[in-house]
Amino acid sequence: MRILITNDDGINAPGLEVLTAIAQEIAGPDGEVWTVAPAFEQSGVAHCISYTHPMMIARLAPRRFAAEGSPADCVLAGLYDVLEGARPDLVLSGVNRGNNAAENVMYSGTVGGAMEAALQGLPAIALSQYMGPATADLADPFECARVHGIKVVRDLLHHGLWDKGDYRLFYNVNFPPVAAADVKGLRVAPQGYRKDTFFGVEPHISPSGRKFLWITGGPQHMPTAPGTDAAANLEGFISVTPLRADLTAHDVLDDLRSRLESAPA
User: Fold this and answer.
1) Is residue 216, in this structure, part of any structural domain at all?
2) Which residues does the UniProt record annotate as the domain Survival protein SurE-like phosphatase/nucleotidase (predicted)?
């Protein structure tokens, strides 16, 4: 099996080392693991691509490359430059330091890398490690992902749904903020929503007198609705959420059509 891996925390991130170990086990002794990851951290860039400027790419070691771009850029670089058209069998993105559950899905570069792979017609999984007080006390805060990641990916490959539609399925996996031994199991869960948790800005004045704005986030341990991704994670479960890049609100199409297409001229 040939696997392409990327992330949004950067080529030197500890979560990428965890993902490399997972990918190597999944690929097997006769497989190939190729890494194309951002040269610098790209957290929060979502599905951004560097459409208006070129990016530098550098070979760091055999099958290991760093690109000055987003995770989606890295997937494109892997497919059309590094691998020279030899398509991988699977794309893995992560393991992110911090959760990509609930509304974080929309901002996540980790998810963006997996989304680009899915748009390119490839099976893809994003993996993230929820952080919290319990993981802060661990020698390895990625312990949960390291111990359980191989089985989750393998189970998805063998038992997951892998369609070939225009907007094909890909998967978002979040490991709970607990020690590996305390994981209660796995839950297939929809994307949740943290109420009253929003991104904002905090202004600061530099020594030169100029104003700069820092993006601020909200509390990450606010529970989402029962049965959704972040709620499952905070209860000690690994969450698996099937996603598509299609953002159409299909549930309101018929109602909107009846309201607008039959409206008087």
Assistant:
1) no
2) 3-195
